């Protein structure tokens, strides 16, 4: 099948490469000419395990190509997939500008029957708007369908090639048949539904996962007060199949390009039909507050933060990605700067992206976790990179001014702490090594 994918962000690029991997001829289009040039020269602009190998082999096999010319890319297409961004507007609503512009471009480029798929995460009713925009421009026949994307960054290729399910929202038998043929090689779990339900499944799924995270974070906060261990609690809960063990890792809250934006968008979608989504509003509020637990623990350990050197391990919103969009690290570092502290920051791959978001003269950029810890009064682990869970903390302790470790992701093991004098502050678990007393009184 001939597939044209519009937008080469995470979703467009990964799904385009994976459609090619399943034997389709895929042309990926982006209006960002420099991105297309990089892709044509074999460079992958995002960090995503396994993506480059797959892109290279499919390009070499002649199944994958890149262009900035949408009209040319659509000539032979059976399916045209919209995968452009839907970033948040200041009021939380999704910004539909890019989707609507692409719909117009599709209208002008249409040259015969095609299935137009909306893969971007969009409010209910958007597919109908896209249909209206295309139909107002073109007389050629086409069908519209919603195929939301559920990939996670960092495991996007694996998720796309082995999805739990693929949701296909369509109201035309012809489109449903085309999209079944396109997606059957990925899974037997094809959920055929109407367009509005498909659009809603995406928001409801993200909102539910975000709810699990905020729920376990609140349980963690209570655990800290009553002396229970949230990792034990989550394990005990998760074994109940009705609950499930995933997305019960307590920490500093969710970030990334999806949960923060999609939860706020769903609150707005509900508000637009006069429904007050109270539960989801609390989920967002809990998440916003959770990151400041790191600052509270630092203050408890160090007293005044002015002039304190604080190492930050991890800037990305999660491991295995260089994406820093809505990363909790942003507000944590801003708070440290406001308190007069000196953040010494590091991340295996996200430093450059972070620097382009927040480049304050007081931030010290470091090459490694050990380098960042030098002469620091405390270390805060904000992203659970595997490397950090392997660090020799005795070595880290030696370079620090005082051995205080705030673990925002419960990533450090008991074994790592053994033989050190670290005051260890995890999330929702008992502290280890020394009593819960202010270190500044000791030193
Ligand atoms: N990032 C994820 O993990 C993820 C997962 C599931 C769903 N989604 C959803 O998928 C959509 C895309 O997300 P993303 O993270 O890939 O976006 P992104 O912002 O990383 O990339 C979007 C791309 O679209 C391009 N673009 C914009 N307008 C264009 C136009 N008129 N013609 C051609 N290209 C154009 C941009 O240049 C950019 O390269 C969003 O709605 C998002 O919510 C994202
Ligand atoms: O138990 C958990 C699981 C996740 N997180 C945090 O939640 C955020 C999101 O993580 P994850 O869902 O793994 O990453 P995303 O790439 O943002 O993927 C989510 O958002 C995508 C965009 O909509 C969807 O496609 C995916 O299905 C959905 O998982 C990250 O900050 C994680 O640190 C936790 O704090 N605790």
From TrEMBL:
The active site lies at 258 (nucleophile)
| Residues the record lists as binding NAD(+) | 30, 35, 86, 121, 153, 261, 325
What family classification does the UniProt entry report for this protein?
A: Belongs to the UDP-glucose/GDP-mannose dehydrogenase family.
Coiled-coil features, chain-numbered ranges: none
In its UniProt entry, what is this protein called? UDP-glucose 6-dehydrogenase
Fetch the PANTHER family from UniProt. UDP-GLUCOSE 6-DEHYDROGENASE TUAD
Keywords for the protein's UniProt record, in alphabetical order: NAD, Oxidoreductase
Catalytic activity, EC: 1.1.1.22
Binding residues for substrate:
150-153, 202, 247-251, 255, 318
> Per the UniProt entry, what are the Gene Ontology biological process annotations, in alphabetical order?
polysaccharide biosynthetic process; UDP-glucuronate biosynthetic process
Q: Does the keyword DNA-binding apply?
A: no
Task: Please provide, alphabetically and separated by semicolons, the GO molecular function terms listed in this UniProt record.
Answer: NAD binding; UDP-glucose 6-dehydrogenase activity
Q: Name one Pfam family in it.
A: UDPG_MGDP_dh
Task: List the pathway annotation.
Answer: Nucleotide-sugar biosynthesis; UDP-alpha-D-glucuronate biosynthesis; UDP-alpha-D-glucuronate from UDP-alpha-D-glucose: step 1/1
Q: Which reaction does it catalyse?
A: UDP-alpha-D-glucose + 2 NAD(+) + H2O = UDP-alpha-D-glucuronate + 2 NADH + 3 H(+)
Q: Outline the extent of the UDP-glucose/GDP-mannose dehydrogenase C-terminal domain.
A: 311-414
């Amino acid at each position: 099948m001939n597939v044209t994918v519009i937008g080469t962000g995470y979703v467009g690029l990964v799904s385009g490469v994976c459609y090619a991997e399943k034997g389709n001829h895929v042309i990926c289009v982006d209006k960002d000419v420099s991105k297309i040039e990089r892709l044509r020269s074999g460079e992958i602009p995002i960090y995503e395990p396994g993506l480059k190998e797959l892109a290279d082999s499919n390009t070499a096999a002649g199944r994958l190509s890149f262009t900035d010319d949408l009209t040319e890319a659509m000539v032979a297409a059976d399916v045209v997939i919209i995968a452009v961004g839907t970033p948040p507007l200041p009021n939380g609503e999704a910004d539909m500008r890019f989707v609507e512009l692409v719909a117009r471009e599709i209208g002008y480029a249409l040259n015969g029957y095609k299935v137009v798929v909306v893969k971007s995460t969009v409010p209910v009713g958007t597919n109908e708007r896209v249909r209206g925009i295309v139909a107002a421009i073109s007389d050629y026949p086409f069908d519209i369908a919603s195929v939301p994307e559920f990939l996670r960054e960092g495991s996007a290729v694996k998720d796309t090639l082995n999805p739990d399910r693929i949701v296909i929202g369509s109201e035309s038998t012809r489109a449903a048949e085309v999209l079944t043929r396109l997606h059957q090689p990925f899974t037997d779990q094809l959920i055929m539904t109407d367009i509005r339900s498909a659009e809603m499944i995406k928001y409801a799924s993200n909102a539910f996962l975000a709810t699990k995270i905020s729920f376990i974070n609140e349980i963690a906060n209570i655990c800290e007060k009553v002396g229970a261990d949230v990792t034990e609690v989550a394990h005990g809960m998760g074994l109940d199949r009705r609950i499930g063990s995933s997305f019960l890792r307590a920490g500093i809250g969710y970030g990334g390009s999806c949960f923060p934006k999609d939860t706020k968008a769903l609150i707005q979608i509900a508000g637009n039909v006069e429904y007050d989504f109270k539960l989801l509003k609390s989920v967002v509020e809990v998440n916003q507050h959770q990151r400041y637990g790191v600052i509270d623990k630092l203050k408890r350990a160090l007293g005044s933060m002015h002039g304190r050197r604080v190492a930050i391990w991890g800037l990305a919103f999660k491991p295995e990605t260089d994406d820093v969009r809505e990363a909790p690290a942003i507000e944590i570092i801003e708070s440290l700067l406001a308190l007069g502290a000196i953040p010494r920051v590091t991340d295996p791959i996200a430093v450059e992206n972070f620097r382009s978001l927040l480049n304050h003269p007081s931030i010290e950029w470091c090459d490694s976790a050990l380098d960042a810890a030098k002469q620091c009064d405390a270390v805060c682990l904000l992203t659970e990179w595997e490397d950090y869970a392997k660090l020799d903390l005795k070595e880290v302790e030696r370079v620090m001014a005082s051995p205080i470790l705030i673990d925002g992701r419960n990533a450090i093991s008991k074994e790592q702490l053994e033989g050190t004098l670290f005051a260890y502050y995890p999330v929702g678990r008992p502290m280890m090594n020394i009593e819960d007393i202010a270190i500044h009184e000791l030193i």
